[in-house]
Amino acid sequence: MENKIELKRSMGIWSGLAMVIGTVIGSGIFFKQAGVLQTAGSSTAGLLAWIVGGVITLAAGLTIAEVGARLPKTGGLYSYIEELYGPAAGFLAGWMQVVVYAPAVIASIAGYAAFLTANFLGLSQSSATWISVIFVVFVAGINMLENRVPAAFQVATTSIKLVPIAVLIVYGLFFGKVDALGQTVHQVATTGGGFGMAILATLFAYDGWILLSNIAGELKNPRRDLPRSIVGGLLIVVLAYVGVTFGVYHALPSDKIVALQNNATFAVVRAAFGDFGGRALSLAIIISMLGTLNGKVLSFPRMAYAMSLDGLFPKYLSKLTRKTQEPVNAIITVTLMTVLLDIFYTKGVDRLSDIAIFTIWIFYTAAFFGVFILRRQVKKGLLAEQDTLFKTPLFPITPLVAIFGALFVLGSTIINDFAGAALSIVLVLIGLPVFYYYKKKRV
After folding, report:
1. Alpha-carbon distances of 299 from 5, 153, 294, rounded to whole Å
2. Transmembrane region positions (predicted)?
3. pLDDT tens, 248-294?
4. CB 82 within 8 A of CB 431
5. Residue range of the domain that includes 338
6. What are the residues whose beta carbons fall under 8 Å from the beta carbon of 409, sequence distance 6 or more?
7. Cis peptide before 227, with omega less than 30 degrees from 0?
8. Helix (H) or strand (E) segment spanning residue 395
9. 81-88 average pLDDT score
10. How many CA atoms lie within 13 A of 215 on its CB side?
11. Which of 73, 240, 291, 365 could lock onto 79 through a cystine, CB 3.0 to 4.6 A?
């Protein structure tokens, strides 16, 4: 009887949109303004970097939307890569995300939210670790309930995080007195890369939208809702990021933004609402990051669940509770790995997640090529075509833009952080013996 319990298809388009928006918009939009501007060298180039990053991300989303519509399975990137390139490649895509990236990125987000919370409450920074653990356990607890609960939490936190974004856009547009374009930054970043590295920084701020595909099996109509949520959510994110950037540039001189660094957006809000505004923004960012945390905890265990169903991870990870129909064992396992990382690996969690991002972009690139493979299969009659299926517009230009963006990320990382790129590949290849172990067990 237990093997008949399946994930509940109860999430609609609003949950999907909230998942995309809430998972992407964390703290980057509030804290990356100065870094991107300083690297780009001028306000015009800085704004253009956010726009180009948004165009590449939209191209990626439109490409994956077709892949996801053709392969609407729980597991996301793992399922896509497995279907396109075989079990070994699929396992490595899932292995990296579940074992390395998931606990690292969840711990990183929770840690930063805890740091802000300690500051907000006037607590010592030594308490941040335990606040981080509380956040992770709290969000995990929400995700052990029926999936409508974390979906509702996602919608609520996403709605709240859009408020300070709207404030920054409106205040900057209508009350800012600085020329947003044409300002030159005198203190340009010395790390090199210029405009290209500025685009790279925005691409990392845009990352996370693909995690919606991990819960495709819980969408009411994944062939329809998955592409609509990805494309619609990314359009809102791009408009929000570009709007906030223009608003901040219109409210503060470029050199002041660079001088303020992480406090630039706080300065804009304080100018509008005083110290109360600054504290309100801090609270909104904390809530924003809890929403991002929820999106990660909601999605990553689904990948572990899907891999367990395929016999590639321990069987207990594929167990669903009869009452809530949730992969509680997978959620507990990912949570436990995160908490242990949070407590005992106090330095370098951000570094670990940055290294893992390089590898994820390798699999992104492979998934983007997948749209060509799937269309070729349709042409050969190996895959059924559907009239109502979402198709990537402006094909093949759109997927080529996505592939170019992915290759740019990979090339830039190799040039600027060869050791990190090499380490990430080693972490992936460690998964091969694990894959062959489980493959042998299935025979």
Report:
1. 19, 14, 9
2. 12-31, 47-69, 90-115, 127-145, 152-174, 194-217, 229-252, 272-293, 328-346, 352-374, 394-415, 421-438
3. 898 888 888 888 877 788 888 887 788 888 888 888 888 888 988 99
4. no
5. 2-442
6. 200, 203, 358, 361
7. no
8. none
9. 93
10. 36
11. 73
> Among the listed ranges 179-193, 239-253, 401-415, which one has the minimum average pLDDT value?
179-193
Reading the block at residue 63, the tokens are 């490409």
Contact predicate 116/285, CB 8 Å: yes
> For residue range 344-366, what is the model confidence (pLDDT) as tens digits?
776 666 676 777 788 888 999 99
DSSP annotation of 101: I
Read off the amino acid at residue 28.
G
- Pair 361, 410: CB distance under 8 Å: yes
The number of distinct structural domains making up the chain is 1
User: At a CB cut-off of 8 Å and minimum separation 6, what does 258 contact?
Assistant: 34, 37, 38, 185, 187
C-alpha to C-alpha distance for 129 and 126, rounded to whole angstroms = 7
Q: Is pLDDT larger for residue 352 or for residue 97?
A: 97
pLDDT at 118 over 80: yes
Q: Which amino acid belongs to residue 233? A: G
The CA–CA distances, whole Å, from 152 to 17, 22, 76, 285, 388 equal 12, 12, 21, 19, 29
CB 308 within 8 A of CB 330: yes
Q: Please identify which residue in the block is written with the tokens 């079990």.
A: 87
What radius of gyration, in Å, describes the C-alpha atoms of the chain?
A: 21
* CATH classification of the domain holding 352: 1.20.1740.10
Give the span between the Cα atoms of 412 and 414, in whole angstroms.
6
* Rounded Cα distance, 171 and 250, in Å: 9
Q: How far apart are CA 269 and CA 276, in angstroms?
A: 9
pLDDT, the chain, mean: 85
Question: Distance from first CA to last CA of the chain, Å, rounded?
Answer: 24
In angstroms, the CA 274 to CA 328 distance is 44
